[in-house]
Design a protein that fits this description.
Shape: globular
Number of domains: 3
Number of strands: 31
Low-confidence stretches: none
Distance between the termini: 24 Å
Number of helices: 16
Length: about 575
Amino acid sequence: MRLSRYYVPTLKEDPAEAEVVSHKLLMRAGMIRKLTSGIYTYLPLGLRALNKVADILRQEMNRAGAVEILMPSVQPGDLWRETGRWEFYGKELLRFKDRHDRDYCLGPTHEEVVTDLVRGEIKSYKQLPVNLYQIQTKFRDEIRPRFGLMRGREFVMKDAYSFDKDEAGAEASYRAMFEAYTKAFLRLGLKFRAVQADSGAIGGDFSHEFMVLAETGEDTIAVCRDPKCGFAANLEKAKVRKPQAECACNAACPALESVATPGVHTVEELCAFLKIEPKAVVKTLLFDADGKAVAALVRGDRQLNEVKFKNLLKCNDLKLADESQVRAWTNAPVGFAGPVGLKVEAVYADHELCCATDWVAGANAADAHVRHLSLGRDAKIAAFADLRVIEPTDPCPECTGPIDFTKGIEVGHVFKLGLKYSKSMQAKFLDENGKEQLMIMGCYGIGVSRIVASAIEQNHDDKGAIFPPSIAPFEVTLLSLGAKEPEVLDKAAELYAELQKMGVDVLYDDRDERPGVKFNDADLMGFPMQLVLGGKGLKAGIIEAKNRKTGERKELPLAGFAAAFAAWRKDIWQGWGLE
RNA sequence: CGGGGCGUGGCGCAGCCUGGUAGCGCGCCAGCUUUGGGAGCUGGAUGCCGGAGGUUCAAAUCCUCCCGCCCCGACCA
C-alpha cells in the first residue's frame, strides 16, 4: 500500500477524550475514530491489526478442531426467556422491539443462539463432540464505557462453544481450548499469563482467564514467584492458605467490655481512638443474600473477598446491606456492627480469626464498641472459611513460597458451563444405550479488539505504538526521503514492488513530506520494521533498516537486498520470540 | 444512577467571572524558499461559540431546561 493513497488521519496531539495510552495512540495513529460513546470505527490500519489478530485466532481454533460459523447479532427475546436471562441479565442487554412489537436484543454473548442451533440438529452421541466458534461484533450496554477499545460497548469477540456427551469429553474440550489459546497468544507476540478464575456455582478448576501483562492493566493477579509451581490466579479466585496456628477461639480472654466510641465509624478512626492496630479489630460486614441477612467477619486490616463469600453461601445475589438494613440488624447507624447480639441469620468468619482472641469490634449500639471479644465465648459463628482477599505478603496457596502481584488485562476466558444452558434449553441427545442425556457445554471467549488495545498498552514508548510483527497493521514500512530526487523514488518503488513480491506486508510512505514527518509517523504507527531510503544511501548502495522495538539500525546492501532483508526480518521476528 | 468536569473552525485550547458580535497554536489551500527526526516566509479559506427558551438596546459570555462527551464511584457472562 502506498501511504499517499491510503487513509490514515494521524493527530499530533492527544485527543482530549483519551485517558489511557492505547486509546491515545489508536486515535493518534489514525487507527480508530469514535462514533459515539464506546462505539468506534476501525480505520484501515486499525482494521488490519484487528484482522491479523482474528486470523491467528481462526487458525488456532481450526487447528484445535473448532468449526467456524457466524451467528446473528440480533436475537429474539423469547430465546433469552428460555434461560431466564431476559430477566436476569440486566441493563447491559440492549433490548428493543420490532414493528410487530416483538422483543429483541443485541447479542452480548451467544449461548442461547448456539444452544438453540445445536439442539435442533444434534440427536445422537455419534455427532458429539462439537465445538462451534465465531468472530463477531458483540454489544454490551456497559454502564460506563471507557478507555477506547479497552472497554467499549461494541467490540469484536471470538466466542466458541463446545458440546460434549460426557464429563471426560468436556474436560478434553476445555483442555484443547486452553492449549489453543496458549498457542494463539504466543503467536500474537504478547506477554501473557493464564490464571485461575472464579467459576462460580460450577466449581472446580474449570475457569481460566488469559491476561496480557501490562502495567496499566485494570486487573491484579497473584503469581507464584517459583515458575516450577506455576500458580497464578486473579484476586477474586486466589485462595488464602488456612493459617497453621492453633485455634484460639476458646483461649483465655478478659471479660467482654463495652467502650464508648462517639462518632467513630471506620476501622481507621477506631484504631486512632483506642490506639490499637487494625489487626486487633474484627471487621463486620453485613449483607443481603437472596433476602437473608448474613454477616462476614474479617480482620480489620483485611479485605473481604465477596466472590468467596458468595460462593460459600451459594446464593444468587449478594448485596452489601443498605443503611436501613444496617440499622435494623444492629440497632445502630453504619459503623458499629459487631458479631455479638447481631440480628442476622448467620455469621461467617475468615479462618484467620480463629488464630487469636481478645478482639475489638462494634457493639451493635450507637457510638459504642466492645473489647476483649472472644469469638468462641461471645459470638456464634456459623463457619470459619477462606473469606478474605489475598495479599502480596501471603504465601503461595499451592507451594507456600512467596508470591507477586502483577497487573494485567483480561483478554480471554475459558469456562466450563456444564449443564446450565443445555438443561434450561433442553439440548439433549441419545447416548449409546438409547437414553436421553443433556449435552455438557463449555464456552471460550477472546476479546479481539481488546487484544489490539492491550498490545499497545504492553508495547509502546513516547513516540508511539510498537506492534509485534505478527499483528502489526503492516510488517514493514518503507520511507523514501528526498521527494525531489527521481532516482530515490524510482529505487524505492522498485524495492516496494520487490517486498510485495516476497509476500511482505509493506506500507510505502511515498508522500511528499519532510523526513521528520515520515519518521515520526512511522514511529507513531508502530510498524516493527522501518526501511529508509535516502539519496546518500542510494549513492552508497545501502538502505537503512531500523528495528522499532530496540531502535537498532542496520545498513542493508541494495545489491542482494532480498536476501539481506530476509535475514534481518528473521532477526526481528526472533527478537519478539516469534518465527 | 450518584458526584465532578467539559462542549468555541478538522485537532488542541483561550475568551465567559466583569455582555458590545470571536481569537491563538497545529492542520488545510496557494506561492516562493527548504529537505535525514514534526521547516521558514507571504497570502488565504474554514465558526448557527452543543440545542431550545428566557433576560437585555445588545448574549459565546447572564438565567432555565434539554442533549452529548469525559473522569470518579456503584455495576460487570
